[in-house]
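Hello, quick one for you while I still have it in my head. Could you read through the record and tell me how the tokens relate to the sequence? No rush at all, and the record is pasted right below.
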Amino acid sequence: MSLVKSERRPRGELARVLVVDDEPDIRELIDLTLSRMGLAAECVGSVGDAKRALASERFQLCLTDMRLPDGDGLEIVRCVAEMHAQTPVAVITAFGSAENAVAALKAGAFDYLAKPVGLEQLRALVKSALRLPDGGAENDPLQSLIGDSPSMQQVRAMIEKLARSQAPIYISGESGSGKELAARLIHNRSARSGSPFVPVNCGAIPENLMESEFFGYRKGAFTGADGDREGFFQAASGGTLFLDEVADLPLLMQVKLLRAIQEKRVRKVGCVTEEPVDVRIICATHRNLRECVDKGSFRQDLYYRLNVIELRMPPLRERVEDIAPLVESILRRLFGEAHPCLSAAALKALDLYSFPGNVRELENILERATALSSGDGIEAEDLHLEPEEMGGEALGRGSETLDDYLNRLERQAILEALQKTEGNRTAAARVLGVTFRSMRYRLERLGIE
């Protein structure tokens, strides 16, 4: 039964929050906190009551316990996603139930709170959730991800989904494939867009300075500490901390990072007390993080904390059809509307090139070609691509391993089949001549959503 009487709080323009918990004292605590924040709450104690409330009116936020008498919070997360896709959902989990939190984030939850519920964290979560943008802006920043290949369409769709969540994200991909750009787009389209985006290259920080750089330090903590200083976590307060090349972190720092992520608290070097931090973690590396775990160079528990959801940035050789629009965009950015054009032979040479450095290398090639070109346009010889670098003329795979090459061909075939069947996996399996079970296995193995 709801603890909120309709006459207690006028609906008007107040944002409404659906609270689902079978413990009356928890409902009352949350209701009171929301009331003091100027929000209206509808409190129910079961999955059934929550579904009825969702069917009858619209809410700007849903807070649900994971364990309910007639089901679990994941049912509500999925129900909200189906009925009100723009409404963020946060789940409340028992203390230490990391598996439940991860499952909820993967199902589409915005964030989670651990019991006992801390009011400071609850207020921060609510404020963050209610700042979520509705999307549909005229100047869509996602268009900075150039290309209409199936793989890039999938990346843009994933970024839209990930921006509405607080789940930690692992962005995989080769050097130069646009991992930091993707992280910035997720941040800019999220509820944290008004707070800092702090990028950190983990491989560029000396090991003896890592703890003080990440967590800050107090005056006098060590020689040269002439004053208090905040670290990366404090600098990203309320925003996003992007850990690039996270696989380069030493094991000791991995332990401290894991604790900071789990507890949402950090301790400055030279300080005896911890302070709460509110950051979203997005990490990336060009290395295979799973292989690093298997080799023992990366902690498994940290891997599972960071890799709640994976976003794969495809290499340029997997989306050859995007090269021409990328060339046009890069040249226009460098030289304006009166930019030099590439001849048909030059474009063909780029199509055949394996691009080990991906989009970043394409930019360098074009800058070099325009500097060395003797005419108004750019010819194939101006690109200065060595014959052995032209992967398409030989095996069609450049410096790829055989496994990578075969996976690329398989991924491309599956994406083309899915595009042809408008996302129908059963029909796509028929097009490819495989069983649906085989299709599902291949999708999971290749990380295709």
Notes: The chain is about 45% helix and 10% strand. Residues 402-446 form a domain with the Arc Repressor Mutant, subunit A fold (CATH 1.10.10). Residues 402-420 form the longest helix (19 residues). The chain has four domains: 6-129, 166-312, 316-393, 402-446.
